[in-house]
User: What shape does this take?
Amino acid sequence: MITLGHVNIRTDRLEETCAFYERLLGFRRGVAATNPDPTKNLWLYDTAGNPSVHINAFRPEEARDTGGGSSLDHIAFNCPDRAAMAALLDREGIAYTAVETRVPGLVQFNIRDPNGVRVELTFGHELVTGAAPIAG
Assistant: This one.
C-alpha cells in the first residue's frame, strides 16, 4: 500500500509555519534526524506520532522562487470535527472557504498557510470508499 509519507515546505517563515500547523492541527515539533538544527529543519508530527510535514528554512545559497511558481497545489488533511475546526479558524482569524463536494456529507475547508500554500481540511472523508477502476 502506498500512502503519503510527508509534505516538505521550504520557507523563510520557519517559526510562523510551525506555529500555524501546531495551532490548527495539533501537530508537534520534532528534531529532524537529517539535520538536527531546529532553527533550520523540523518535523511536525500528527497526533498519532506520524511525521507529516517537514519544514526547512532556505539555505543561504538557495534561490527562492520569487515568481510564485510551484508544482505544489495543496496539502490535504482528513479532520474529524467540522464544527470544532470552524470555531478554531474563527478564533484564529483564519479565513476559509467551505466547499460542499458532490459526495453528500463530504466537505472541504480551504485555507492558506503563512507561505501561501493551500491547505485543504476534509470532513467526512470516511464517506469515500474508493475509486472505481478506470477502463483501459
Notes: The longest helix spans residues 14-25.
